[in-house]
Structure formats: structure tokens, C-alpha cells
Amino acid sequence: MIAVILPDIRNPYFTELISYIEDLCMNSRYTMILYNTNGNTEREKKIVQEMISRQVDGMLVALTTAHSATLDLLSNVPFPVVIMTRTFNKFDSVGICHSDGGKLAAEHLLSMKAEEFIYFGLEDDDKFLGFREHLLDYGISRDRISVIGNQDWYFNTINSGAILLSNFIRNRTSSKRAGLFCVNDMYAAYALEAAHEAGLHIPEDISLVGFDNTSICNIVYPKLTSIYQPIEEIAKTGFQLLEDKMADGYANNKKEVRNIVLAPRIIVRGT
Q1: Domain containing 27 — which CATH number?
Q2: What share of the chain is helix, strand, coil (3-state, %, to 5)?
């Protein structure tokens, strides 16, 4: 039995990811059990503890945050674990470099002649750190870079996050051209809707970049520019890492850690 733990199955990124993983499990004759943590670290830890008691064969997990307290618990589980979407030195993992993705977003917004740069998400997220680093290297002053939504909301209170983002766009008084980078495509789509309702022109008044390059990007107008994560490759690579660990004997290769870092790309569309 393979346990799969995801932070938010309402997000199309994770919906697509689990679809690939389910196919891989069925083709390899593994039973799959899926858990959704709703972005709650305590719930995440309880699920891992339950999987220890159920003696699963292996686990694929996408953590709630890059600094989740669950990491300590995962270090001592009696079965192989592969972390997906991010890479961690102490665990087998596969994902893109989120910092590089943030740099791509910054580069695009600079090319769109943005004068103010806003990140919607957590301030300690690698996406923002890469975003800010690239802007500072380009010569953008710190007072032109800001963060909104720096709170633990965007997994378990999506509506609150959407309202916060919408209010920011509608109440914004600056006449400077804005460049907005969102933590994922869902919130970029909310931002796009709020911009339309505020009578803003896209991308003339505000340029937008999402993250994940999910199906959302092609069903909004204008179509959304986004940072591409190779979802199918992440699923296949993560599953192969886990299957190798289970086949070779976890106790024999526990110290052999493999981190697979995939390259992000930006898919430029209408925003």
C-alpha cells in the first residue's frame, strides 16, 4: 500500500498530480490511499502517525510548507518516503527550484514595464525569495517590492485569501503600473477577476504571473502567464524513486538520498 499525502486537492495542480500517481499505482498493482491535509500541519503529522501504525509500504508526500514540523517525524518512519514538488537534502525528493521560478516571474514583470512589484503569498516562500533577489539585482529598490497575504491562509481558507487579494486590487490607489506574482494559478485567476471588476486594463495597468501552469491558465481572459511545473514528470519521477526504495530494501539504502531538481519554465500568455 502506498500512502499519498497532499495539502490541498482543490488546487488543480494537486488534482492533476494525484491523477498521474493513481495511474502509476494501478499499473504497478499497488493500492493507493489518499489523504488531504487542507494545509494543516497538525493534521499532516497525525496522518503520518496513522500511516506508521498501518504499516504502509511507502509514502509520497507534498508538505504544507517548506518548513513543516512534519519533517522531523518523517525522518524516523519505518518505510521509504519521497517528497514531491520541493527538494530536501535529507529526503528523497523531486521538484522544481521554486526560487528560479520566482526569478522567471520577476523577469517577465520587468519586461512588461511594471513599476511596482507585489507578491501574493508567504514571505519566507522560496518563490518570493527568488522573485525579490532578481528584482534587487536588477536595481529595483526594496520600497517598490511588497508582499500581501503573508499569513497561513491559502490552503485552508481559500475564500479569505481571495477576498484579501480582491480588496487589495480594488482599493489600490497608486497610478504606477503593477506587476503581481501569485503563489499559484488559483489566486492569479482571482486577481484577474478583481482587476476586471475594478476596470483595470490587463496587462497595461497590471501584469500577472501565476505558478504551476494548470488548466486554469487557458480558461480565463486574458489567458494567464504562469510558471510551468512538469506535473507528469514530478509524479513519474517521485513514484520511481519510491518504487526503487521499496524494491531494494529500505533498511539497506536509507542513507542514500536522491534529490531530483527539475527546471521551471515560464509560459507567457496574455497577462
Answers
A1: 3.40.50.2300
A2: 45, 20, 35
pTM over 0.85: yes
Q: How far is 268 from 223, CA to CA, in rounded Å?
A: 9
Domain assignment of residue 270, yes or no: no
**DSSP code per residue over 96-162:** E-HHHHHHHHHHHHHHTT-SEEEEES-TT-HHHHHHHHHHHHHT--GGGEEEE--STTTTT-HHHHH
Strands 265-267 and 226-228: antiparallel
Measure the CA–CA gap between 89 and 87, rounded to whole angstroms: 7
Q: How far apart are CA 211 and CA 106, in angstroms?
A: 12
Cα 112 from Cα 179, distance rounded (Å): 8
Per-residue pLDDT of the chain (271 residues; tens, 9 = 90+): 999 999 888 889 999 999 999 999 999 999 999 999 888 888 889 999 999 888 899 999 998 877 777 888 888 888 999 999 988 888 899 999 999 999 999 999 999 999 999 999 989 889 999 999 999 999 999 999 999 987 765 545 677 778 888 888 988 878 889 999 999 999 999 999 999 999 999 999 999 999 999 999 999 999 999 999 999 999 999 999 999 988 876 555 566 889 999 999 999 999 9
Grid cell 497610478 is found at 175
Residue numbers of the domain that contains 58: 2-96+230-262
